[in-house]
Amino acid sequence: MKNTKLVAVVATGLGLALTVSACGSATSPGASGTPAASSGAAAGTPVKGGTLRLLSGTQTEHWDPQRTYVGAQIELGNRLFARTLTTWGTVKSDTEQAKLVADAATDTGKASDGGKTWAFTLKDGLKWEDGKAVTCDDFKYGISRTYAVDVITGGPNYAIGFIDIPTNADGSSQYAGPYKKTGQDLYDKAVTCSGNTITFKLKQPVGDFNNTVTMTAFGAFRADKDLGDKSNYQIFSNGPYKLQGTWEQNKGGTFVRNDQWDPKTDDIRKAYPDQITIDESLTAETLYERLIANKGDDQNAIAFPDNAPSTALANIQGGAAGRYVAVPSPYTRYLVPNYKSKVFSNEMARKALALATDRAAYVTAAGGKELAQPTNSMINPALPAFPNTPLPAGEKGDPAAAKALLQQAGMTLPVKITVTYRKNDTLDKAFAGLKLGWDAAGFDTQLVGIPAKQYYGTLQSPDSASKYDAYWAGWGADYPSASTVIAPLFDSRVNITAGGPGQDYGYFDNKEFNAAIDATNAIADGTVREKAWGDLDVQLTTKHYAAIPLIVDKFVFAKGSNVQDAYVNLTFTGYYDVATAWVKK
Amino acid sequence: MFYYILRRLGQMVVMLLLISATTFAIFFAVPIDPARYTCGKNCTPTILEGNRKSLGYDQPVPVQYAKFVQGLATGRDFPDNAELRAAHPEQVVHCPAPCLGYSPLQSRTINEMVSEAWPVSISIALGAFVLWMLVGVSGGIIAALNRGKWPDRLVVGLGLIGYSLPTFFIGLILLTFVAIQWGVVPVPSFKPFLPNPFDWAINLILPWITLACIFAASYMRLTRAYMIETMSEDFIRTARAKGAGKWRVILRHGLRASLTPIVTAAGLDLGGLLGGAIITESVFSMHGLGFLAVNSVTTMDLPTIVAMVLIVATFVVMANLVVDILYGFIDPRVKVGA
């Protein structure tokens, strides 16, 4: 009996120790306080050769360029095997903003007809891995695949939205893609090839169409290599690397040099490593353990695309000093007041909600300043259009001022509101904190945590308009133009139907604002246009109070000690850019 | 005996059909739209419809189920869109019988996925099984024979520790220190048994130990309890009185009589494990059936979910059958038809 007790004591002790260390990691995630401060400085002249290893805990859903919609795959696709007409340049530090540059095209595109026609001329010397030239028709065919919506699923549908092909009554395109060929003549009229020049006719002026074509969905695809869904993991390269053998789902693959790629046609990809391997069989926890330990081949590895999980954060500062970086994630978390709710149809009530919002509580819940930063802009800091709108009442908010507003609006306190959020531990804590601030301002907040899988479906359901007063949501730009933030979230014309609010969850429906979106879309000058998007963002958050931006979370990435010149390209996708990375011998 | 097995197999088929039908019904009753998952960010209603079609969820549920059952019997061709199959034969994927289906999320047949995953699960399960049976049963015998003395206390104590440490904890500790920090063994990744069985074993040793820890602990306790009970029975005294040797008494008379409950438990545990050791697989990044199952649920991949439910159910039912048959050999009193 005595001995059993002793064992029990030992076991309890172990349990306690575990609990204590778990608490430790939750309260002190020791990431670097200054973003980008600890990224490795360049060590010497880059050398060719070696193997760069990508350690991943995320399964690749698609390698098919037209089906790729995730930043990580867009980047790898573009950097390794699928050159696009234009792309985002490389960077020399984790904070530098990348610029739009020509890739397969000779320049970043020529707009005419007020931005309704765009033309790109292909460079000479572009080749597929079998030595055949990459032609204008290959680009035209590739883009046409997006229209086969029941085969080529998952990719972005900007082609369908922008290119001038009429739609059917149900909203579908009259062109059904290259397999059924229904409406092929319409596509052939809207996208034309003349020699090496591809010309797009658009429905409306799109000033940043040369940004849109940076997505691999606008990349080339050889018709004779198209096997529909069977092509999902088959890679046919026109970039510096090609896949050796086959891609194994949940395991990975090895990319080797494509000897048909001519570096003279390419200013972006340095292609230093002889091989790039991707191991996606791991979990984020184990891959960060390995990167922190930095043993053997793992010295030549980078985390891609997984950011460090909370379990790794406690060890990363000491264990991977100089080999990790904390950068803003591409996502902005925000709150949307519902214009159809009785309370928030009132502008003063929306303003009161904004004033009483305690972002500091959210930041604490998300793991502290190292892992989240408060924001009052819908546009992410990584984007050129980021307006950096000041917080309305500091990080903590001002419940007293908010209360005064509610009273001024003639509302009877407390004002009952129901707020939804995506249920998880972090947001449970964050919303408990936010509720305190709102309730102090005279709201009586009821929180509704909705499981992740049902979350956005619930927001988009037409019944929700009468049930909830405000929603939590998150969004990241598709490509670094703010047109992919403001328009998809707040243009009522593309969102609100009888079937629901689309992504305009709060039913913000403002004719002048929609007109301003069109006007901004048509601006040809990139700098002027992005400034105009920033102004619209400011309008949303400080004039209409149609959205209350909350935080931008930060991602922490680590790399092995031999990997040099690997910088997080925030503007492009927010991951390490493999175009410049090299491996020290 | 033959008819008994035949009858049991017949019951099994009916049960598996019922289970698969129930899985279909539950999947479509859940208020989550699987097509929304593949539809990308700026999804529109017409594109959502396209996705539903590509996933094969556009047809009525009974039709989908009938096609699934038919595929099991005769095989199927994908995509499920006859028009597309006729116009573009190069896109057709043939899935031979017994076709478990095609996962549009993985762009391959489930048979292919399962044939890749089962060697992993079987390797983990069988190795761990041998390890825990050896350690567990022998530990239990030692404890029972030394009841109340220090070997007993040691075994019971170790068993308690083994039993109270969660699998993911043991797994992570072993992985972090033994493989990553000290480099005693390579960081595990599954290697096929042939051509290099040593490579196979060295990569599996940590998952085996991890999984065996918790099971060995419970088998120690189980064996100890039954051995103590059996060793105090009259027939043991009789055997000793007749002059049987010490180990003959322990193994032939004592252990054999204690085996029935141990075999029952072992059969069911092994049956369950063959369907995948989810936590161990995930800690050591080994993608067996357990990983497939979890992955299919989180991605709402119906064809894979149904297939995994069927496979796990088959293993459990088969294990039950094997255990029932083994009883006849271990314990003559329960021989079927006797």
From TrEMBL, chain A:
One matching Pfam family: SBP_bac_5
The keyword Signal belongs to this UniProt entry's keyword annotation: yes
Annotated signal peptide: 1-22
Keyword Ribosomal protein: no
Source domain of life: Bacteria
Cited PROSITE patterns: PROKAR_LIPOPROTEIN (PS51257)
GO cellular component, one term: periplasmic space
Family matches, as InterPro entries: Peptide/Ni-bd, SBP_5, SBP_5_dom
Domain Solute-binding protein family: from-to ranges: 100-493
Keyword list, A-Z: Signal
PANTHER family: ABC TRANSPORTER SUBSTRATE-BINDING PROTEIN (PTHR30290:SF83), PERIPLASMIC BINDING COMPONENT OF ABC TRANSPORTER (PTHR30290)
Protein name: ABC transporter substrate-binding protein
Annotated organism of origin: Propioniciclava tarda
UniProtKB/TrEMBL annotation, chain B:
Entry keyword Thylakoid: no
Keywords: Cell membrane, Membrane, Transmembrane, Transmembrane helix, Transport
Signal peptide span: none
Cellular localization per UniProt: Cell membrane
GO BP terms in the entry: transmembrane transport
InterPro entries referenced in this protein's UniProt entry, alphabetically: BPD_transp_1_N, MetI-like, MetI-like_sf
Membrane topology (UniProt): Multi-pass membrane protein
Regions that span the bilayer: 12-32, 117-142, 154-180, 200-222, 262-284, 304-330
GO cellular component terms attached to this protein's record: plasma membrane
Top-level division of the source organism's lineage: Bacteria
Keyword Transmembrane among record annotations: yes
Domain ABC transmembrane type-1: 118-327
Alphabetical list of Pfam families matching this protein: BPD_transp_1, BPD_transp_1_N
Family affiliation: Belongs to the binding-protein-dependent transport system permease family.
Alphabetical list of PANTHER family matching this protein: DIPEPTIDE TRANSPORT SYSTEM PERMEASE PROTEIN DPPB-RELATED (PTHR43163:SF6)
Protein name: ABC transporter permease
Organism (species): Propioniciclava tarda
